[in-house]
Known about the structure:
It is found in: Cell membrane. With 268 residues, this protein is mostly helical.
Amino acid sequence: MSVRAxxxxxxxxxxxxxxxxxxxxGTFIAAALSPDRAGRPSADLQWGNFVTAWTDAEFARxxxxxxxxxxxxxxxGVILALLGGYAFGVLGVVADRVLFPLILLGMMISLEAxxxxxxxxxxxxxxxxxxxxxxxxxxxxxxxxxxxxMRAAFRALPRGIFESAEMDGASPMRMLWSIAVPNLMPxxxxxxxxxFMWTWNDYFLSLVFLHGxxxxxxxxxxxxxxxxxxxxxxxxxxxxxxxxxxxxLYVIFQRKFISGMLAGAIKE
Length: 268
């Protein structure tokens, strides 16, 4: 097979796969814009469905709550992941062969397995129905992966750049922020996007710990869909509203996300 024919078949296969993946997305968008309650596609696009969903579900309040939680988790998670990954990947922590597996153990614990004792413990501390409590849980569950991810990224950097900087008198923190971080931006962007997506899409934790005015967007969407279970067009519009921040963030950072994922595949 010639190179040209191989390229042609590659594009054909990729186009078919893209259509298969995008077909459900297009159907969902068509349902959200449909004037028909059953969500059947129509040439008459009903943009007012989004306004109705936004107003009736009170998304302005719930999405603000979700945004506060998500931004706090992302900022704290990135800082802790950078510091932890730098300590394990570059500085060399005392007893790291014991501590690092313990951190990885946090990735294997299911939230469903600890949610009951966690709820009673946080209730004793006054952190139920409190944004701080949910933020702390998300950070605690996300940092193990963050340290694992950033440790691999730090170890992929040439060791010589740190040795040269150390010989020039650079402190560990100076090496981290001036040398390592600029070279690890794709990996950092990837972790930011993953952390944002995981936190924003959380439903179970928010449902258990937050109530009333502290309702997050995903919980508000669940309540809204319970009210309009027979109106597929409004349910689809509400789903697109809640998914919009993650989709926008992915479109903006997709190149950095892909390069970060590829960088994470480099062996330590």
